[in-house]
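Protocol step 4 of 5: obtain the predicted structure for the target chain.
Materials: sequence only (see below). No template structures provided, no constraints applied. The aim of this step is simply to have a reference model before the mutagenesis design in step 5. Sequence pasted as it appears in the construct record:
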Amino acid sequence: MTTLHVATDGADTADGSEDRPLRTISRAAELARPGDTVLVHGGEYREWVRPRRGGLSDARRITYQAAPGEHVVIKGSERVTGWEREQGTVWRASVPNALFGDWNPYVQQVAGDWLVEPRAPLARHLGDVYLNGLSFYEVSTRDEVTDPPLRTEITDHWTRTSDWVRNPGQTLCRSKIGFAS
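Step 4 output (structure tokens):
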């Protein structure tokens, strides 16, 4: 049984020892064998971890754990840079499809009367945009981005029941998903 170390200052070409840690949890997942432990040291890891193996039994599973006393954050999100001010508080950034690998959540729409949102149309994308830890509300038009109304209530279109918005200020954060043809 081996312990593979992962650290934000490591390298995926390293051997995963305490002195030569790997950079990504994903690389450790590729190398780990039944009975091994992946020890992740403090920091933020922006990656989608898809282990190749799980282990052989409860006694010989592969375990992933934070190093004792260290704070580890794993995010499946990517930081988007290159934002340009369009006008006022509206900013724009282009995100290359290559960032998403085999599957782009902003192409996939979810739709139906079970969606809870302020008003129709009842279609949204699976992707999500965050700013300072808050999720944006997706909107359908450019005007809704430029001049979003403050929302204090939302309606479930399936049950026709209303509920109060827990953070009305967050409803002023809007994103419009657009695609170039």
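Step 4 remarks: DSSP finds two helices and 16 strands in the chain. The chain has two domains: 3-75, 84-175.
Proceed to step 5.
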